[in-house]
Amino acid sequence: MKSYLHEDKPGVSPVINVFDPGLDIGLIEEPMGFSYGPGIFGPQVERRKLKDISKSLMDPDCAGPDIVYSIAMDVGKIKHKELLNSMHLLYGVVTYATGKLGIEPIRSQGHIHKVSSFSNWSTPEVYEIWSGEAIIYMQEYAEDNPGRCFAVYANPGDVVIVPPYWAHATISANPDKPLTFGAWCDREYGFVYEGVRKHNGIAWYPVFDELNEIQWLENPAYQPSELICKSPADYLELGIKKDKSIYCTFEEDPETFLFVPSPQIKEEYWRRFIP
């Protein structure tokens, strides 16, 4: 087990109780999913069960909720549907169950975004936390040497960006609060799990201690690495605005998020990226 660094650690019902994402979307608790208000389009949700993600957990045989999280990919305002298609841009919403996966938090499988035929790049993702407490974990590579590793602690209203080609996972840091978030993605989204699964998960496993605080255990399947725990960057260079939802930013200036389906336009930025 290796030490890790903390730069800092920020401390039908509505999805949100703190932050307004600018979309009329409600959370359905049973079965876990979403409802769409007037003028909003969205699909039937996809549900990920514990058996679906067990291969990426520290303990594949752990106990936990049967449905771990629900996903609605491609939601938005009906008036924007044609524009979103033409830009190759997609907005998704995800909500997590409360509880734990053994001693691990509720979390997604670690993965890398597939290379899109639209850009010939693995594409970035722009997260926005709506409710709960999130940690967006990311590592440069899903290889024996994981490269730089970050755990970005985020609260409602915070934005976190995962750059192209990085392996990442989204973690619920509070077992008593459901985590819900939205994200801008490439319309040709897809996930590559092979590298992470080959290493039995991400390079650092999040686990709860006896006080339900997240601690990090190094995954011995990787070469030794350092984990930096931090708050989100401001991303001003990418046009991200404080105290404004990423959907409202899109409404005001859709071209702000052209870098999501076309990450090559920010190639220099990705070279020096720090989340």
From TrEMBL:
Residues 65-210 form the Glucose-6-phosphate isomerase prokaryote domain. The keyword Protein biosynthesis does not apply. Keywords: Gluconeogenesis, Glycolysis, Isomerase. CDD domains: cupin_PGI. It comes from the Bacteria. It is an enzyme of class 5 (isomerase). Pathway: Carbohydrate degradation; glycolysis; D-glyceraldehyde 3-phosphate and glycerone phosphate from D-glucose: step 2/4. The keyword Isomerase applies. Pfam families: GPI. It catalyses: alpha-D-glucose 6-phosphate = beta-D-fructose 6-phosphate. Its EC number is 5.3.1.9. Belongs to the archaeal-type GPI family. This is glucose-6-phosphate isomerase. The lineage of its organism: Bacteria, Pseudomonadati, Bacteroidota, Bacteroidia, Bacteroidales.
